[in-house]
Amino acid sequence: MLTYLQRLVDERTSLTATRAAILDKAAEADRDVTDTEKSTIDGIEARCAEIDPQLSQYNAQQESARAFATLTSKLETNRDAQTEARRPGTQVETTGLQFVDTDQFRNYTGRGQSGAVEFTDFLPLNTRAPITTADLAIPSFVLPPRVQDITVPPLLTVVDVVGVSTGVVEWVTVTGDPVAALVPEGTAKPEAALTFTPTSAPLDTLAHWVAITRQALEDASYIQSVIEGKLRRGIALAIAEAVNNALVAAAIPPASVPLGGSLLEAIRVGIGVVQSNGYTPNAVLLNPADWADLDMSVMGGTLGGPTVGSTFWGLTPIASRLQPVGTATVGDFKAGVVWFDRNVSSVFISDSHADYFIKNTLVILAETRGKAAVPEPLALCEVAVSPTAATASASKK
Predict the structure, then answer these.
(1) What are the DSSP E strand ranges found in 30-189?
(2) 10, 108, 139, 207 - which has most CB atoms within 10 Å?
(3) Rounded to 5 degrees, what are φ and ψ at 241?
(4) pTM of this prediction?
(5) What are 134-182's pLDDT values in tens digits?
(6) Where are the domains of the chain?
(7) Any residues with CB less than 8 A from the CB of 378 and at least 6 apart, and which?
(8) Class at the top of the CATH hierarchy for domain 95-397
């Protein structure tokens, strides 16, 4: 939203400057404005009439976001102080340890359902830094994961994560072809071919459970490992899958390489496309098979030997099974992709599932809510190598 609001402000400023320049030019020549100039001014005023209500609306939303950020910052500070007071001198507890230390778990008799325990830091996500500046500018860095001891899916380290407090989220999807044109002096300037589409959607619920025996309730360490190693990890993987699915559904601009090109060359072309749209690419999504081929190709063309964690054209490679073989998604994922995180996850134990209660079997269930979106497809580029190009490239080797 901040990017969209800034674009509206920039466009409004540019329109005002253009209108003033036309009037000043006519005044200096001691003449009335021409029909062409009048038509341009009318178009400017019509566009300004569309922009001004949007500026008022989004400014009000930003004021609300500022107030909410201040409140959550105070609540987080208070929660941290209470934790330190309860367990002085100790390190931050893992989620599993926190769960087995709650009254809901301690008082559970093994029948029915335990009370749900809510965690505000259950998901190991890199979250956007608190908004504290007067102009609501988002820093260029993000905070490190608040929760350790679990591997964060690589895709979640390069996308933007925005905390929300409601069950429905809204964003503006920006699409089009923002290419400026050479315009002779005194003629009307073309409008950037951009489309801004407001979108709203309810949050998705991500949940899964793990079965345990009733005797396992006596093993707190086992319960901790189940929550940490299975439930939290599974939720994190589900979020990465949701982000992948949002990318598949998005209308990402395509690009290709000339005949005889390679996927490595296509990635470089994609970097140029994204940069020409005003973004800075930070990662490339690859099918695991293509990633392996690129690694071997780069290794064969250099003297350094195999390298773990190598980049391609400076981009962080990320494996995605949903990325078709022979293609890659290049882009500024921090600007183009968002995970709206509800910030609260629930964990509870129950035997109220099928016939588990007569089998001395229980389930531990964890769930969270969020939504993946691609608000700025122009920050991304889908590149590919055609079968003909791939065949020609292979015949040269």
Answers:
(1) 117-119, 160-163, 168-177
(2) 108
(3) -65, -40
(4) 0.62
(5) 333 433 333 333 444 456 788 888 898 888 888 888 888 887 766 555 6
(6) 1-91, 95-397
(7) 174, 175, 176, 178, 253, 277, 278, 279, 336
(8) alpha beta
